[in-house]
Amino acid sequence: MNARTLKSACLALVLGLFTASPAWAQEATPASAAEKLRSDLLLPGVTLAEGASEITGVAISPLLGMSALGAWKYFHTEDALRHRLPWYCQPYAWGTGLVLLSLCFLKDFLGAAAPALVKKPLDFAELFEDKLSALVASAAFVPLVALAMSQMERMQPQAMDGMAASGMAMLPLANVFDATLHSPWITIPLSVMAFGVVWLSSHAINVLIALSPFGIVDAGLKLTKLALLSLVTGAAALIPLSPYPALILCAILFLIGLFLAGWSFRLTLFGTLMGRDFLLNKRAQAEDLETGVKGFLARRTDGVSVRTFGHLQNDEAGATHFYYRPWLVLPQRRILVPGAGMVLCRGLLHPSVAHRQDAQTRLRSSLILLPRYRRLEESIAARFGCQEIMDSALIRGFKAIRQWLVDMLSTGKNLVEARAT
User: Fold this and answer.
1) In the chain, what is the straight-line distance between the N-terminal and C-terminal CA atoms, in Å?
2) Which of 120, 298, 317, 368 has the smallest number of CB atoms closer than 10 Å to its CB?
3) For the residues of 9-55, what is the DSSP string, one character each?
């Protein structure tokens, strides 16, 4: 078996895995598809811009992107050819997606008047739905689009002749670029990476929505995602006229996502672990403290970014350190956590560790512990030598309100009894 035969066999295998029919990539649409193909050939970059717009739009909102794109392609395909469409274009796929989107809309519409304690669990559930949709899209949607781009995109002779006639010395670079677009072994990994970078930043908005206690902030963040999706859709609508607006917009969103990748990753991990413990009501046991107490940095410490995930543990000498791995896979590092002035705070949803120099100094939060450690505050304080255990400001506020209500009711009861006597 020669190299060309092996490459063809591998491409057929990948195509079979990601499509509903192995013949989808070779579907022969009559006049309409042939005319579209000829029009695309006159304007280089059309297929590349279409693929980039689809990947970017789905990365911003995976469930909405795949459902809308699948329904659009299904209804714009002739009846005789619909069975050749990929899986996300079939009614069972985009129909299920639209039903789930309707439930999310009802949650946002009806939940606006509901208390945060009722709506926030649903927001965290939607957070995990977005992760699952992104996993499906990265495994079964993005490779399919990248494979289509590698098979369809061409650097046309007309464009090559025009570049040569203009005296531009970019012809070798154009040949390299053309060869790169023809290789699925390059386009698929690059497309998956671009999808992951854009999705990570978009998903960080979902985390902020789940963590925000204010409905007006939730609405503003949702409108931000809708505006980004509308920009990508509008740029994609201009592709028949010029592919460059879509390509430029997708490149800008990718660069922004790449710049915010570290911040987005830490925020996503924070929302995932905190939401998991909150939804599943996980409870740690006292013996679990032997392996350390897991949590996140509440502020930048010794050059380590806020919301870095790690665990608090004592070393052989008894000193307390915060151990962490950058990006969760790099070699482990540690930073010293001062024992002097360490205070453990009981929280409404999770405990935390704070520091202060003396009784008159304002507390500064140092670590946010996972919700699973609620009701283990005394054990944690004894293990790490915390000088004090106190309620957080939110709990103190609730207790003050309760005490005020008790005092008011007691006063009213005493007045009624006095008048009765």
Assistant:
1) 106
2) 317
3) HHHHHHHHHHSSSTTGGG----HHHHHHHHHHHHSTTHHHHHHHHHH
Identity of the amino acid at 260: L
Please state the rounded mean pLDDT for residues 312-322: 89
What global pTM score does this model have?
A: 0.76
Instruction: List the helix and strand counts (H, then E) for the chain.
Output: 15, 8
Closest listed residue to residue 100, CA positions, set 72, 62, 73: 62
Q: Which of 97-106, 177-186, 299-308, 387-396 has the lowest mean pLDDT?
A: 177-186
Please tell me the predicted confidence (pLDDT) of residue 414: 64
In CATH, the architecture of 288-398 is: Roll (2.30)
In the numeric block, the tokens 């003050």 are attached to: 400
Q: What is the DSSP pairing of strand 352-355 with strand 320-324?
A: unpaired
Cα angle for residues 236, 204, 261 (degrees, 5° grid): 85
* CA gap 149, 229 in Å, rounded: 21
Token pair in block for residue 29? 């649409």
Q: Enumerate the β-bridge partners of residue 334.
A: 323
Domain segments of the chain as ranges: 12-23+30-273, 288-398
The candidate with the shortest Cα–Cα distance to 123, out of 61, 207, 27, 193, is 207
